[in-house]
Design goal:
Blueprint: E1 11-21, E2 24-30, H1 38-49, E3 69-75, E4 83-90, E5 97-98, H2 104-107, H3 110-117, E6 126-133, E7 138-145, E8 169-173, E9 192-197, E10 204-213, E11 217-222, H4 234-238, H5 241-257, E12 270-275, E13 284-289, H6 300-311, E14 329-336, E15 339-347, E16 355-362, E17 364-375
Parallel strand pairs: 2-3, 4-6, 11-12, 13-14
Antiparallel strand pairs: 1-2, 1-17, 3-4, 4-5, 6-7, 7-8, 8-16, 9-10, 10-11, 12-13, 14-15, 15-16
Length: about 375
């Protein structure tokens, strides 16, 4: 027996589906169920998530950037894409709604959501859809299992950072270079020197960095250059106020160099410490910040961008990453605090420094479907 809830109050009910995509989680909405006006839409999203509040106690948010995300999906333009996806990054403690970066983890949930919500019909035992991420204009093909024309979520694929196993969802990125910046290497250099004054000591500090964007604007730093190892625990790095102050100062300088302007209120570029891998099977060790909190794992597009730096000549990853095989298809295992993330990159020997394909496996599933109730003050009732 099921129970149908009724609502007769000053709260507004907004249909949504709570989805896990990779190692992220958040509500997904049909674009038609949200205000068309962007400012009004953002107010509705903030109310749904319970931001700004560090605990997000009055909404769906999980008090962490990885669980303070939302997805908005609609049908794509014929001849261009099957689905259009807008990713929204919210923060627990402030009132920003950032729709400029991509999120490869939440992207993994787009096709399952579209099938569950009726935007698309399953094609057969396997369903493939082309998705346009509106944030940056990025195109990708997403494939999932749909035996009997029904989405399958159980399976044997495991991704570090998510308990258990699930059915694989394969994402083939078609063109991620310069997703937010002007180019894969926005300064035109494989290595730049960032000069700051240490925020605590006032001493001048010069650090070699690779400023790169293959789906996610990132600043890669050799951990040893900051007297760290990139093997520290997440708790250690989050408690390291001296390091975080230096990293933020470097991020502000890098943002200007990358053509992103003042990034003090933006969630990108992401900062990443790199080091030689400790695991013999890995290619590189990482500790990423998103942007001021150490990530328990690594984002999808962050892993692709780090992997890209591993295969490009002359970056800070040269002499740090361990590569196996000569390509043009490179399998890069990116180690992170809770495991590893494998990405596949294909280069074009005729065009040195080019990446022609990026692919990976994620998992995703719906967690709850229904309506999120938000105060009418955030989106007045009709």
């Amino acid at each position: 027996m099921t129970h149908a809830f009724t609502l007769d109050s000053d709260l507004r009910a907004v249909p949504c589906m709570l989805m896990r995509g990779g190692t992220s989680r958040g509500p997904f909405f049909l674009a038609s169920d949200l205000p068309a006006d962007i400012a009004a839409r953002n107010r509705a999203l903030l109310a749904a998530m319970g931001s700004p509040d560090p605990r997000q106690i009055d909404g769906l948010g999980g008090a962490h950037p990885l669980t303070s995300k939302a997805g908005i999906v609609t049908r794509g333009k014929p001849g261009q894409a099957d689905l259009d996806f807008t990713f929204a990054q919210l923060q627990p403690a402030n009132d920003t709604v950032d729709t400029t970066p991509n999120c490869g983890n939440m992207l993994a949930a787009v096709l399952p959501f579209a099938l569950e919500s009726g935007l698309l019909a399953a094609e057969g035992d396997v369903t493939r859809a082309r998705v346009l991420t509106r944030n940056t204009g990025m195109l990708c093909d997403i494939t999932m299992q749909t035996p009997g024309r029904r989405p399958r979520y159980a399976g044997d694929a495991h991704i570090d950072g998510v308990p258990g196993t699930a059915a694989p969802i394969v994402i083939d990125f078609l063109d991620t270079a310069g997703s937010v910046c002007s180019a894969l290497l926005p300064t035109g250099n494989a290595i730049d020197t960032l000069a700051i004054r240490d925020p605590q000591t006032g001493e001048p500090l010069r650090v070699a960095a690779t400023l790169i964007d293959n789906g996610m604007p990132m600043v890669l730093l050799r951990a040893a250059d900051l007297q760290r190892t990139a093997y520290e625990s997440v708790a250690e790095l989050n408690a390291d106020s001296a390091l975080k102050a230096v990293i933020e100062a470097l991020r502000l300088v890098a943002g200007e160099r990358m053509g992103l302007g003042n990034v003090s209120a933006k969630s990108y570029p992401k900062m990443c410490l790199i080091a030689p891998p400790r695991d013999a099977a890995a290619s590189i060790a990482t500790r990423c910040f998103i942007p001021r909190v150490c990530h328990e794992a690594i984002g999808v597009l962050a892993a692709i961008t780090v992997g890209t730096a591993c295969v490009l000549p002359g970056t800070v990853a040269a002499g740090v990453a361990v590569l196996r095989g000569a390509g043009p298809v490179h399998t890069i295992s990116v180690a992170h605090p809770t495991g590893e993330f494998t990405v596949e990159l294909e280069t074009d020997p005729a065009r040195p420094g080019s990446i022609v394909r990026s692919a990976l496996v994620r998992t995703a599933r719906p967690i709850m479907r229904g309506e999120v109730l938000i105060p009418a003050s955030a989106w007045p009732l009709p």
